Inverse folding.
């Protein structure tokens, strides 16, 4: 398995939504949360091209949310979700209840960049 760690995205102080981060080189495996995360769930917006972002939902109509976030923790992203991501933005809070962060919050993400075949 090829493994790449990217710095970002960043939620700026006083904001609830990060800038977009390019994940097109692999599948998102893990999100490392910032050390000093203000208490809020984590939700997402995704895009194919970094032009138009959409809130991320499951097929059943429920928003993709990490309801309890532990600062400085690692969140494992299920494969059936990670393969749908080209570009991603992180949101503090939910689409209907965003929560501005009190300071800049830098995430790290790990991508599976393996492109080899069998054996």
């Amino acid at each position: 398995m090829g493994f790449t760690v990217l710095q970002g995205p960043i939620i700026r102080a006083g904001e609830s939504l990060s800038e977009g981060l390019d994940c097109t080189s692999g599948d998102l495996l893990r999100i490392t949360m910032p050390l000093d995360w203000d208490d809020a769930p984590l939700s997402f917006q995704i895009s194919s091209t970094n032009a138009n972002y959409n809130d991320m939902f499951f097929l059943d109509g429920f928003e993709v949310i990490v309801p309890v976030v532990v600062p400085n923790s690692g969140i494992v992203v299920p494969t059936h979700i990670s393969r749908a991501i080209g570009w991603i933005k992180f949101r503090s809070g939910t689409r209907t209840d965003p929560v501005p962060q009190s300071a800049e919050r830098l995430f790290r993400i790990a991508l599976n960049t393996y492109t080899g075949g069998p054996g």
